[in-house]
Design a protein that fits this description.
This protein has about 210 residues and is an all-alpha fold. It contains nine helices and no strands.
Length: about 210
């Protein structure tokens, strides 16, 4: 796989999973009572927190798997299943605690002065699916400094696009509406389902070489 092919796959995967478009209405709702300057500050901090979290797992994911005794093949299957569940939720526009806040979390968030860390930074942006994805993608780049550098660059680009999306949240929500957001989320979900199945298939081949 060339650096360009890997970077393209990594970008599509991360952007689809972080899915800043789906976060728009939630972000707008949680910050609706904040002045514009505070909204911008919240968006910047949330992206910084989520980016730092994903970068941490990017750099340490392989080490953590080794310490826990989890093979990469097993994590491919587990991560693929996790992403498949996420994809199904996206296709059916179903909101659960997987990629959105639960009712209890929303209630707690209303009493917080700073929403950037929780719930916007984690788990809305850097949720279980995103964390699993960066570990899987960095595992694919193992042994190649060029691919690893490309992935870190892709992560930075996705976070920059996420920040731009949140900063324009009011305008984008007004243009897209709930229907527009759901349509885009369904499209992303279909793409993510294909990626999830590929991860599962690759993991099974790695765990059971005789299958291939």
């Amino acid at each position: 796989m060339t650096v360009w092919e890997f970077a393209t796959t990594a970008f599509v995967t991360l952007f689809v999973i972080v899915d800043p478009i789906a976060v728009l209405p939630i972000f707008a709702g949680l910050t609706r009572n904040l002045p514009p300057r505070a909204q911008r500050r919240t968006a910047s901090r949330a992206v910084a927190v989520s980016g730092a979290t994903l970068l941490f797992f990017t750099l340490t994911g392989d080490l953590l798997l080794g310490l826990l005794g989890i093979s990469f093949g097993a994590f491919r299957v587990a991560g693929g299943l996790l992403l498949l569940i996420l994809a199904i939720e996206m296709v059916f526009a179903h909101q659960s605690g997987f990629r959105s806040t639960t009712s209890g979390e929303e209630e707690e968030a209303q009493h917080r002065d700073d929403l950037s860390v929780f719930p916007i930074g984690i788990p809305l942006l850097a949720g279980p699916g995103a964390i699993a994805s960066v570990v899987l993608l960095m595992g694919q780049a193992k042994g190649s400094l060029a691919l690893q550098s490309a992935f870190v660059g892709v992560l930075a680009i996705v976070m920059a696009l996420t920040l731009a999306t949140l900063l324009l949240s009011a305008r984008l929500v007004a243009v897209l509406g709930v229907t527009g957001v759901n349509v885009l989320s369904r499209i992303f979900g279909i793409v993510l389902a294909g990626l999830a199945i590929q991860y599962i298939a690759d993991g099974i081949r790695e765990l059971f070489p005789a299958v291939s």
